[in-house]
Amino acid sequence: MFCIEVFTKNEFKDSRGEHVLSDIISLDFNCVNKVEYCSLYLIDGKLFLKEVKLIASCLLSDKITESYSITKYDTENPSYLFNNNVVTSKAVIDVLYKKGVTDTVSASVIKAVKDLGINKNIEVKTGHRYYLYGKLSKTILDGIACKLLSNTLIQEYKVNGLK
Amino acid sequence: MKSVTIVEILNLSDKQLIDLSKKKVLSLSLAEMKVVQRYFKKLKRNPTDVEIETIAQTWSEHCKHKTLTGIIEYIQTDNGKRTKKIYNNLLKETIFRATVELNKKWCLSVFKDNAGIIDFDSKNGVAFKVETHNHPCALEPYGGAATGVGGVIRDILGVGLGAKPLANTDVFCLGNPNTKASKVPKGMHHPRRIAKGVVSGVRDYGNRMGIPTVNGAVYFDDGYMANPLVYCGTMGIIPKSKIEKKVSPGDLILVVGGKTGRDGIHGATFSSINLDQSSDVSAVQIGNPIVEKKVLDAMLNARDLNLSRAVTDCGAGGLSSAIGELGEKIGAIVYLDKVPLKYSGLCPWEIWVSEAQERMVFAVPPKNKEKIVEVFKKENVEAVFVGQFTKGKKLILKYGNDIVANMDMPFLHDGLPKPTRKAKCNIKEEKLQKAFTLTSLELSKVLKNILADLNVCSREWIIRQYDHEVLGQTIVKPLQGNNIEVSGPGDAAVIFPQSIIKGTKKGIVLSNGLNPSYGKINTYKMASSAIEEALRNAVCVGGNIEKLAILDNFCWGNPNEPEILGSLVRSANACYDMSKAFDVPFISGKDSLHNEYFIDGKKFSIPPALLISAVGVIENITNTITMPFKNAGNKIYVLGITRNELGGSVISKIKNIKNGVVPNVYPKESRSIMKGIYKAIGKGLIEACHDVSEGGLAVAISEMSFAAGKGAQINVGSIKTASNMSAAEILFSESNGRFIVEVAPHNENKLKKVFKGLSVSEIGYITDNDFILFEIQKEKIRFKEKLTNLLNTWKSTIEF
Prior knowledge:
The complex is a heterodimer of chains A (163) and B (800).
Chain A: E1 2-8, H1 15-26, E2 32-45, H2 49-60, E3 66-72, E4 87-97, H3 104-115, E5 122-137, H4 138-149, E6 155-162
Antiparallel strand pairs in A: 1-2, 1-3, 2-5, 4-5, 4-6
Chain B: H1 14-23, H2 30-43, H3 49-58, H4 61-64, H5 66-69, E1 71-78, E2 81-87, H6 90-93, H7 95-102, E3 107-109, E4 116-119, E5 124-132, H8 134-139, H9 141-157, E6 164-174, H10 191-209, E7 213-220, E8 229-239, E9 252-257, H11 267-270, H12 289-304, E10 310-313, H13 318-326, E11 332-335, H14 348-353, E12 359-364, H15 369-378, E13 383-389, E14 394-399, E15 402-408, H16 409-414, E16 420-427, H17 440-452, H18 460-463, E17 474-476, E18 479-483, E19 486-489, E20 493-495, E21 507-513, H19 516-519, H20 523-540, E22 548-555, H21 562-582, E23 586-592, E24 596-599, E25 602-605, E26 609-618, E27 635-639, H22 650-654, H23 667-682, E28 688-691, H24 697-708, E29 711-715, H25 727-732, E30 739-743, H26 748-754, E31 760-767, E32 771-776, E33 781-786, H27 787-795
Parallel strand pairs in B: 1-16, 6-7, 11-14, 22-23, 29-32
Antiparallel strand pairs in B: 1-2, 3-4, 4-5, 5-8, 6-8, 9-12, 9-13, 10-12, 11-13, 14-15, 17-20, 18-19, 20-21, 21-26, 22-26, 24-25, 27-30, 27-31, 28-30, 29-31, 32-33
Helix pairs in contact in B: 7-21, 9-10, 10-12, 12-15, 17-27, 20-21, 20-23, 24-27
């Protein structure tokens, strides 16, 4: 499964990240000092890398203000094992819809990919990725994810510490 | 292929019947379950799950309004005197009764279709509907608000044979967004998150549909922290020839728009349930405005080609309610396996009651079968025939070769037993607060505190997120002022539908009134005030009191509690009294009851809230005005009498004033002033007009001043009062029926002539200064406020 991460270029303001930071602070999580926001698209299907690049550059990102990265999405293994005793300075929270919840953006992406001339059956999940910086523990990140970044009725989140 | 299950009901005891209702989230009472049991005993069989779910949806509070149409035994105690009254149908005996008695010929469709319709011109009508979407917003604020907007837009699409939506409105009652995170009950969203979520939801759905959001209100109170209220409204234009719908046996049933999934299952029955942390996940709905926009475009084409005989939207209860309503008087057969699905694995009952969004149902004469599908195909909208309306007054549902439901329409629609509820109200005497005076310094401080209060401050952060200009027809806008940096709160919006009705000079005014803080003391006065406020707001911009209609949206707690239901009865009575006295009919309404929630096992009920929305036609859009002051040297007048009415006011909250009389409504006096304003605006005698509401006169004058960047000199002593009042009481009383108007000196005499016999006070004049000066010699009060200070104070409270 390809993971396309679309983020704001360095020279532009990441207003979504700044808003999230302000909301985090207003919830008294003062240990976070920076947030970076990315849109997340998980695409499953028999696609070539060049097709995924075409989708990322022509469909999912704004060439002037945004950039993207393409990786393989690992649904199982976190990049850094994280338990309650560990404090890290950088962490990532992914938020995705739960299975069965209508993902309207995903439906639009699937249609638009066909419009791009890529006539293959694909599945798309859309979500949000937040990079958080500060003195972060799993408890704090779970709190932020539950109280602010996801609605656990319809979304699931995954917290990973980063080295 | 999933099929049906048989639900054992014939041999269940009373307790087992109630358990079954709870287990299946049917929200049916024991009396209702017993009627269902009797019906199936007569049929000598148990129902299928599809049948039991159909009954639950059709008989839900959301669809049948069981409380307002049920029997209410009401006992009122007033000053020791006890009176008893039985209502057989509160709605019919109060709100609807007023409309029937007023019998306005310009009301084209009232309380019978998806929206109320009034006359616009010889060929067109204006449709208006306001809905609530409270429980979904408590669970998922963004999705709940978005689908609230989507749903009410579909109400307008589904009125008659389809109206073209022109404008949206939104009103929220929310918890204090500045609440400390630790004070938010466990499992509930923080009020700030709810506020951001609902605003984003309204913004994203409305903006993407290309419909401007032009009018609204927000009220903050901690009573709404766990149970926010989200009202969404849509106004549209419909040709008069398309108002009537008539389904005939033989018409085909066409489902158009979104596919059906599990989203929103049990939404209708869920709305009758109190909220707690374990609320049902499947009640969450997700909206897709792009699909709805395509449906809108295609269906209006189909309407203009006369391809269908009826249309309605899939709202609460999904296909069950939509097809059930259209086929109520005749019958229908539906093939559930033909309904397009988002994914496989749905049971027949889930297909039938799913509240998946963006779906409409049409009754299509067989001869138009191909043509109508072609119209939808052109817009890339899925349109599938799923059945046919029949003659036998039977609802038959098939899934493959199996008949999964076979019930009589009369039982479904008329079989619901009328519940009897007890209501009581002990009317408390309102006492005047202890007389109080404030020094100049204190008055200045209080004015700024009131301007910064959550319920008075600028809503610009919200309004600017909405596109209120799209379609290019919003001629009186929600924010009004000299430039984008300086704007004051408009009283009402005016739409000029020139893109739809070429060459028209007419406009449509939309406004609202909402006063939950009064309802905590007196729900009769709350309802009266909300009605008057909505009318006042419309009149301020040029609305004609003789051509205004209103809509009611009750949001109340649990009607099974006699005190709560009693307060509802009182406000319904106020609706009747005010509708008659103002000669303004109700044309549509909706109630949302059971707004209660549990925290740590303790029950809380929301403060009762009645939203009144007003709509009216303005004959000539050039006769509309805005609220900012216009020219230095012009005179400032107050129309209406200031009374010592501080009960439930903003100052009483800020200064912790005990007692106080809640503002009353004096319809005769107030209506005469409203008629005068319409006449004076038509004659060009008024330059600016603003209603006096939350915060009182000082706030209204400040708003008119800073919106214009013009100063004012105010002689508080010349404001006419009904009794001896201090400067503080005069400046911050929230008496109804008052307007501040700007008049050019050469028009003063003409204005006085228009308002002869009514309360008119000249209170000062507009200046080019950068401050407002308030003076009253009697108390030696003199305080000056810089406009920039007032504006910044007003603007800086809500900045999330």
